[in-house]
Amino acid sequence: MSMADMREPIESGCPDGFQYMHPVMRKNFGNWKYHDDPQPGVLRHVAYSGDEVYTIKAGTQRILDIFTLRKLCDIGDKYADGFIRFTIRSNIEYIVTDEAKVQPLIDALTDAGFVVGGTRNSVTSLSHTQGWLHCDIPGTDASGVVKSMMDELIGEFKAWNMPNRVHITTSCCQINCGGQGDIAINVQHTKPPKINHDLVSNVCERPSVVARCPVAAIRPAMVNGKPSLEVDEKKCICCGACFPPCPPMQINDAEHTKLAIWVGGNHSNARGKPTFQKLVASGIPNNPPRWPEATAIVKNILKCYKEDAKDWERINDWIERIGWPRFFEKTGLPFTKFHIDNWRGARASLNASTHIRF
Ligand code: SF4
Ligand code: SF4
């Protein structure tokens, strides 16, 4: 086929964001001189042209109902310049160019029940995955964990009390959108999947499921005269990857699906290289509706970090300075053999190098 015969691709990605930007931000794009933080929840950016913009940040839940959205937009129309945007941690930001508009906007947000904060050295909104609302594989409701924890950490959202910024994430299954953060609360399955053999042949594509298992623990099998699957439980690492393509391989369990807490993850850092998070607490009850056990551990880690870290140390910087043994001593979290990653199978069956292979 010649190039002339090829059709143009249909561009259905996200629209150009410039059209939605505040005009003063558009005008000064790439020409900002500096920014500072006049008060918690407020950023001020100053451009070389002399223009200033104030950004006022308020926490919102990630999944917003239409009534709350309308309320937030009405506040933006009345008290701001009619421009909003959402951050990746589900905070809403209003942009104004007049300093006199900042306090009335904060008052209007506070009166409507929203909390202004989440800037600089605060605990910003927990980021979370979808949970039971519209995903088909969660082992817990990440949104619910966020609500419960933010209720208890709201003082840290509003203030600048932490040594540096704290990003907390949650994730409701063990394999997909999952969290990487200063503190991450992730689902942890502890038992292999239970197979409903009557449904497998009707619902699952068996080769896809077999291929999906990272440790080759699933084999085709005939059960009661029907094609089904079997799991080598000695090999299974309880990751849950077989459940999405084959729902009859149920791994979620009220008792055996737990939460685990990981710390020290950082995608990028002006002062150091990116770091992977490490497991510090496991087997925590997945205990809705308030998840008190997980919340207590997170609050304890934050307390130790606040007391012991130097200014501007992120959690990973703090742990690197004091060392992991001191981290466990200070937080009082038990260090067990389960914290040591001694699984050797990855060398043979996982992509363990930095090379991309297909
Ligand atoms: S973390 Fe897993 S269960 Fe939660 S929304 Fe993402 S894919 Fe779904
Ligand atoms: S849970 Fe993970 S390791 Fe276990 S059988 Fe399923 S895909 Fe394989």
Using brief descriptors, characterize the structure shown:
binds iron/sulfur cluster; four-stranded mixed sheet; 14 strands; alpha+beta; 10 helices; six-stranded antiparallel sheet; 358 residues
Furnish the topology, listing elements before pairings:
Elements: H1 23-27, E1 32-39, E2 42-47, E3 52-59, H2 66-79, E4 84-86, E5 91-96, H3 102-111, E6 115-116, H4 142-158, E7 168-171, E8 183-189, E9 194-195, H5 197-203, H6 206-212, E10 218-223, E11 226-231, E12 249-250, E13 257-263, E14 278-285, H7 292-308, H8 315-322, H9 324-331, H10 346-349
Parallel strand pairs: 7-8
Antiparallel strand pairs: 1-2, 2-3, 3-5, 3-6, 4-5, 8-13, 9-12, 10-11, 13-14
Bound molecules: iron/sulfur cluster (2 copies).
Overview of this structure, please?
With 358 residues, the protein is α+β, with helices and mostly antiparallel strands. The chain has helices at 23-27, 66-79, 102-111, 142-158, 197-203, 206-212, 292-308, 315-322, 324-331, 346-349; strands at 32-39, 42-47, 52-59, 84-86, 91-96, 115-116, 168-171, 183-189, 194-195, 218-223, 226-231, 249-250, 257-263, 278-285. Strands 1, 2, 3, 4, 5 and 6 form a six-stranded antiparallel sheet that branches. A four-stranded mixed sheet has the order 7-8-13-14, covered by helices on one side. The chain has a two-stranded antiparallel sheet with strand order 9-12. A hairpin with a 4-residue loop joins strand 2 and strand 3 (52-59). Helix 2 (66-79) runs antiparallel to helix 3 (102-111) and helix 4 (142-158) runs parallel beside helix 7. It starts with 22 loop residues before the first helix and ends in a 9-residue tail after the last helix. It binds iron/sulfur cluster (2 copies). One iron/sulfur cluster (SF4) is lined by residues 192-193, 212-213, 215, 217-218, 231, 236-242, 251.
